[in-house]
Amino acid sequence: MKKQSKKQPGKRSSVFAPGLAALCVLALGIVFAGCGGGSSTGLVYWTMWNEAEPQGQVISRAVAAFTEETGIRVEVNYNGREIRKTLQPALDAGEVVDLFDEDIERVSNTWGNYLLPLDEYVTRAYPTTGGRPYQEVVNSTLLDLARQLGNGSIRNIPYQPSAFVTMYNKDLFAQAGIAAPPKNWTEFLDACARLKAIGVAGITVDDAYMACLFGYTIDRLVGMDATLAMVANNDFSGPQVLEFGRIWQNMARNGYISPNAASNIYPAGQVQEIAAGRVAMYLNGTWLPNEIKGNAPDMNWGAFAWPAINPGGDGITANNYGAQSFGINKNSKYPDEAFRLIVWLTTGPWDVTLAEESLGIPMANDSEWPQALREAKAVVEATTKRLPWAVGMEDNPDINAKIKENFARLVKGDLTAEQFAEAMRR
Q1: Rounded Cα gap, residues 210 and 421, in angstroms
Q2: What gap in Å lies between CA 224 and CA 45, rounded to an integer?
Q3: Which among 98, 215, 326, 346 could disulfide-bond with 390, CB atoms 3.0 to 4.6 Å apart, if both were Cys?
Q4: With 50 as the cut, is the pLDDT of residue 37 above it?
Q5: Is 184 helix (H, G, I), strand (E, B) or coil?
Q6: pLDDT on residue 74
């Protein structure tokens, strides 16, 4: 997943409330009596965001406000995506890390041995929950996902939710006379034909998302279980692969998919085609408006679920959704304070601010979604089946590479549908 974040003046790895430094020595005993005593550095929070990203900017300000409100100092280490390489060695070495964040499945699966169970914490009320238990004021679907990933125990707290949907340019749809987003493949092809008539390609893709496009289309043909079985068995001999080839061969021959799709290296498709208004649709994440807002600040965004194709496959209520998430180190001396910071960031004004400035989805139920994602909200709320990322097609690097190579050749015209299916069997 690809996401972003801002910089607070001062030291790179620490965020302090204004004026607190001058009172630090005097207040130290009081502050850390409240934190449970011990370390003289307060909470240590490792984040996946960079300081310059919208999420990092908001976190910097939110943490400063948290310190001012509570007297709890927080050292924020902005690791960026390098956290995937740096956190495990730090945890293994016993380095002080009280709180960390990353993708919900990565936090659960990669660093699960270090997670503190949070079941009791979510049943309590906090200053920004209006007297209600935390679990009642935040997205229950994502909290259930955390519980599922924790084998029945909530061991991390989601935030910055996201969904994988078809993002589209509403102004181009209007110009093409498309009255409503397509729900099935017939309507999708009609939309593509109407867009072509006004000189716009229907859809594009970058190399980073080809396996997602393949996985979602196969899911709509045969369903999630059969799609995941293809990956588990490394078996691409089924008739659905040929059908996929025929679908996208026709898309290319009809001019419904951008001719650049075969050669787009991320983020060329989304920046040079979607942002430029040359292409109308992209099967991507709800983070897309944030990623290209510098190139398309006034884009009128819409979203719909990937269309249904075959009665034997999944329909539009099957979609991937997820989130980033917070985990508290089970060895932390300050778990209560760490959870207070989580609540501070996922409810109330900072939840709203984080969603607004990153064009993301808020976590609290009463927080308003950004305008760019209003239609995505309807897709998420209608989802009854959660698909894994790319419906498993990125789980095996060799399969991912095979899809990218052969899909590019298919839409370029170097392979027929039959040749594509044969190449995928090898």
Answers
A1: 16
A2: 37
A3: 215
A4: no
A5: strand
A6: 97
Tokens read off for 163 = 């969904």
Hey, which residues does 281 pair with through a beta bridge? Answer: 168, 203
Output the pLDDT for position 5. 36
Q: Report the alpha-carbon distance of residue 146 to residue 168 in Å, rounded.
A: 30
How do beta strands 99-103 and 43-47 pair?
parallel
- Torsion, Cα 285 290 296 300, to 10 degrees, reads 60
The amino acid present at 256, given as its one-letter code, is Y
Residue 425: CB atoms within 10 A of its CB come to: 12
Separation in Å, CA 376 to CA 179, 200, 263, 404: 17, 23, 28, 27
Quick check: helix, strand or coil at residue 65? Answer: helix
Rounded-to-integer distance, Cα 413 and Cα 419, Å: 11
DSSP state of 158: E
Structure tokens at 406: 């052969």
Q: Give the model confidence (pLDDT) of 208-238 as tens digits.
A: 999 999 999 999 999 999 999 999 999 999 9
Through-space distance between the first and last CA atoms of the chain, rounded to whole angstroms: 29
| Tokens (6 digits) for 395 | 């789980």
* pLDDT in the model for residue 14: 31
Strands 157-169 and 385-386, how do they pair? unpaired
The tokens of 315 are what? 């329909």
What would the pLDDT profile of 115-132 be if each residue is shown by its tens digit?
Answer: 999 999 999 999 999 999
**Placement of tokens 């009128």 in the chain:** 300
Q: Token pair for residue 348?
A: 């109330």
Residue 228 tokens, joined: 């995941």
159 three-class SS: strand
Residues 405 and 413: their CA atoms lie apart, in Å, by 13
Per-residue model confidence as pLDDT tens digits over 136-163: 999 999 999 999 999 999 999 999 999 9
Mean of the per-residue pLDDT values of the chain: 91
Cβ atoms 128, 344 nearer than 8 A: yes
Residues 163-211: tens digit of each pLDDT:
999 999 999 999 999 999 999 999 999 999 999 999 999 999 999 999 9
**Structural domains of the chain sorted by starting position, each given as residue range(s) with its CATH number in brackets:** 21-162+322-374 (3.40.190.10), 163-320+380-425 (3.40.190.10)
